[in-house]
Write a structure and sequence with these properties.
Layout (H helix, E strand, L loop, with lengths): L3 H21 L4 H22 L1 H9 L21 H6 L14 E7 L5 E7 H22 L6 E5 L5 H10 L11 E5 L5 H11 L3 E5 H14 L8 E5 L5 H10 L4 E7 L2 E7 L6 E3 L4 E5 L7 E8 L7 E13 L11 E6 L5 E3 L5 E3 H9 L4 E10 L2 E8 L7 H12 L4 E6 L14 E3 L5
Parallel strand pairs: 3-4, 3-5, 5-6, 6-7, 16-19, 17-18
Antiparallel strand pairs: 1-2, 7-8, 8-9, 9-13, 10-11, 11-12, 12-13, 14-15, 16-17
The chain binds zinc ion (ZN).
The site of zinc ion has 7 residues, from loops.
Length: about 450
């Protein structure tokens, strides 16, 4: 646990960074490019010094750190596959930062397996400061930047929760910039969620896109009166466009989205004009593989801030479209006009309400012996779990069933099947939740 002085130092630099946040999104584009290129050079030099993996990677491409002068040169280097980093993240960790202050974030991906990635304390504080960039866009709807009530529909142990716990022990966040947050489990039946929200009266509701979409569709169809927040913010997975239209146009609640990953804590955020995601190019490099502006392709990511585990030229698995135009909001940060690949499924309940995939998957992925798991819903109360077990580790099917029923109730029939591979979709993605029910 860091001492008093370290905590004071963290709080101080957080304040300095946060003050700059009001302006960065409006910087001159050339200035942004200069900052980005400088950080690319520094990061590549660091990765070369600190990790055998990146030294080999650069040598194999016939390059040295001095050859990489900026973001554009990254396109000449090989892309790092998601599986490589997911399976052995320790190979990417910087030698001299091992054992220094930082946090290993655990993310229960809907790709079916957990990811672990270590971030240094400076990168986490920087990401916290950059949160102000998103909050300023949100403030245009909420009317103020802090002090409001925010309901979060997320499970215990989410990446956001892990980060908050880390920051709370390392800084003193001034009361003046705090929010009043309340966590609501995404496993709660929609009627209970509604009652909780009505009692709390939040100005902002934050959660998974698919879950919030299903929740508001259910609310609209139920015909009941309910508390409306000033804005809804979702991250992680996509909200179906029809549900977004329903929330924005019929219910009159603006919807904003954010874009982040366990490999890069701030990639982009939607501004008040909602024309796309502004990419935080001072923090990340986002490139579309072999494609120009306006063309959809595979996203390649570099995180410029995290030195504990350098992430360079990394294929995140999303399909995106970059724009070279300017946003009417006046922010100069470039725009991502579409992100695909974030579509998750929901588990349906007999009463018509839904549970987000991660609420079901996260406890299963943490079960002993599990390497990867896929859930197939065959009926409201009938599920098949396909499991890839870890070699040489004890496996416990009953424990899996127990964890599953803890989330979805004792009535569900659960079958466990051992598999050696989990099929990918035609888009090459692993779907860890498959629903055989008629989808609305
Ligand atoms: Zn904008």
């Amino acid at each position: 646990m860091p001492g008093f002085l370290k905590r004071a130092w963290n709080t101080g630099r957080l304040g300095v960074w946060a003050r700059r946040e009001g302006a960065i999104a409006y910087w001159d584009r050339q200035e942004l490019a200069r900052v980005q290129d400088r950080r690319v050079r520094a990061l590549v030099a660091h990765a070369w010094r600190e990790t055998a993996y990146y030294r080999e990677w650069l040598k194999a491409a016939g390059a040295e750190p001095g050859d990489i002068r900026g973001a554009a040169d990254l396109a000449r280097l090989p892309v790092i596959d998601k599986i490589v980093l997911t399976r052995r993240p320790e190979r990417f960790e910087a030698e001299s930062l091992k054992g220094t202050d930082g946090i290993t974030l655990h993310s229960s991906g809907t790709s079916g397996y957990r990811r672990h990635l270590r971030h240094d304390a400076r990168a986490v504080l920087q990401a916290l400061a950059a949160g102000r960039r998103q909050r300023l866009a949100l403030a245009e709807y909420v009317g103020r930047e802090s002090g409001y009530r925010e309901a979060i529909f997320n499970r215990d142990g989410s990446v956001g929760g892990q980060l908050r716990a880390f920051i709370e022990t390392r800084t003193w966040v001034p009361k003046a910039v705090e929010l009043r947050r309340r966590l609501f489990s995404p496993v709660l039946p929609f009627a209970e969620l509604t009652a909780g929200v009505d009692a709390f009266q939040p100005e902002v509701i934050r959660g998974y896109g698919s879950h919030l979409g299903a929740f508001y569709q259910w609310l609209a169809e139920s015909g009941r009166q309910f508390h409306k927040p000033r804005a809804i913010v979702y991250g992680a997975d996509a909200m179906p466009p029809a549900q977004r239209r329903l929330i924005e146009q019929e219910l009159g609640i603006p919807v904003l989205s954010t874009y982040q990953a366990v490999e890069a804590l701030r990639i982009g955020f939607e501004c008040s004009q909602r024309k796309g995601f502004h990419i935080s190019v001072d923090q990340v490099v986002v490139r579309v593989r072999d494609k120009g502006p306006g063309e959809r392709g595979e996203m390649v990511l570099t995180n410029l801030w995290n030195y504990a585990t350098p992430v360079i030229n990394y294929q995140l698995g999303d399909l995106v479209t970059l724009s070279d135009g300017l946003c009417p909001c006046g922010r100069t940060l470039p725009l991502l006009t579409s992100i695909d690949g974030r579509a998750d499924d929901l588990v349906a309940r007999p009463d018509g309400t839904r549970v987000h995939a991660l609420a079901v998957l996260a406890p299963l992925q943490k079960a002993p012996g599990v390497m990867q798991v896929q859930v197939e819903q065959r009926a409201f109360d009938d599920f098949l779990l396909r499991v890839i077990w870890r070699q040489g580790e004890p496996r416990d099917e009953d424990e899996l069933k127990r964890r599953f029923r803890q989330v979805l109730g004792a009535g569900a029939a659960v079958h466990v099947e051992e598999v050696h591979a989990i099929a990918t979709t035609s888009a090459g993605k692993v779907k860890s939740l498959i629903s055989r029910l008629e989808q609305r």
